[in-house]
Amino acid sequence: MINETPRVRFAPSPTGYLHVGGLRTALYNYLFAKKNNGEFILRIEDTDRNRYVEGAVENLIETIKWTGLVYDEGPDREGNYGPYYQSQRLDIYKKYADQLIEDGKAYYCFCTPERIQKLREEQQAKKEQAKYDKHCLNLSKEEVQAKLDAGEKHVVRLNVPLSEKIYVNDIVRGKVEFASETVDDQILIKGDGYPTYHLANVVDDHLMKITHVIRGEEWLSSTPKHVLLYNFLGWELPEFAHLPLLLNPDKSKLSKRQGDVAVEDYKSKGYFKEALVNFVALLGWNAGDDKEFYEMNGLIESFSLDRVNKSGAVFNVEKLNWLNSEHLKEKDNSELLSELKNLLENSEHSEYSDKDDVLSKIIEVMKDRIVFVKDVIESASYFFETPKEYDEKTIAKKWKPESNKYLQVLLEKYEQLENPTKEDYETTLKQTLEEHEIGMGKLMLPLRLAVSGVGGGPHVYDILDIIGKEETIKRMKTAIEKIKAE
Ligand code: GLU
Known about the structure:
Glutamyl-tRNA Synthetase, domain 3; Rossmann fold; mainly alpha; 4 domains; binds glutamic acid; 11 strands; three-stranded antiparallel β-sheet; 9% strand
């Protein structure tokens, strides 16, 4: 395989949404392809008719496109190896199943579900592994033909050799050994004529000239079946790399019960695709240093399969949030502005959605303090409305009996200012402090509380500047009336 262009694929089965683990698999394939001047293919593995979900494929493709992982070949990007939907390749799988039967590497099985069930129960009772017992392998060619002619329901099974060692050379896990006795005679073609994942996957990886199979660890136990198929069909094996499991913080397997697992959920919560991509890249990989903030180009430059870990990767939402805030800081204000405008349009403050000047100032002062753009609306609503209430803890700590008095003095001075700038508000406040020989805390915090209702946030002069003199005065008056020291 030396000198061959690396070709990798992401091969999801459409289940209705893109799982974050799926995104990690897709991303590692993409990074590997880009890093090695290879090609990244998207193949839709939609042969399980029982799992068919209306709209799932469209949703999956749309989500992949949103993440920015542009595929070189796949649905609506035809290359030389299509179609890229397995459901459109059924005759291809049948051809190879027939060849395997012909060569004695696969066989027809006519066992009824009842017999299979009984067999399973017997094996369970004896504490044996549930496995097909090769019963139908004993049928003669004539018997098989007669059953087929009579239209008996059947499947096609892989004829796994009895006692052989099967080796999988895995880039992440090294050489993994399987005893063929533990491998079931896997169904290759189901009763409905559709292939199972195993047959379709191997046939397509071969025909699509996939050089590296990079996928989740949950597929490792299927790999010996795939290795047998490659050998039986006389095909060269691809390289394998099985990626570590994703875990909840309590180290159990990542599950819906402990948080969101769908990429769409993160998207709708307001995470940036750059942050999500950066975050999932670190789930099982690092460049060997403690760098954590990456943009896509940096990931491509640094990525290598050699540095993928074996042990499970914990999905830590706090880290994702931190990365989101870091990516937010790197964004152009114009992008943040247009997102904020969209959010405002659908909020109770829609009258602000076209006030670009004010919104740009808000973004400027809030950019370093938020995780999501929506935080501007949710945690700094004072930019858009008079505080409805005042934080009680801050009152208790910072509002003194004389606060109302000093605030009144300041208010009168502010009223005299003409078109004040940020600096004017500051100078005037400082003057007041000097005149009354009081410390900054005595006036600044009551002022902040009066205009914002809360004890923290951007510089108070920034807030005044953004809401404007008239609104500042109004809010100060209301606060002087409403807030009393406890
Ligand atoms: N269709 C499989 C899935 O849904 C693909 C596994 C593989 O990459 O081989 O994950």
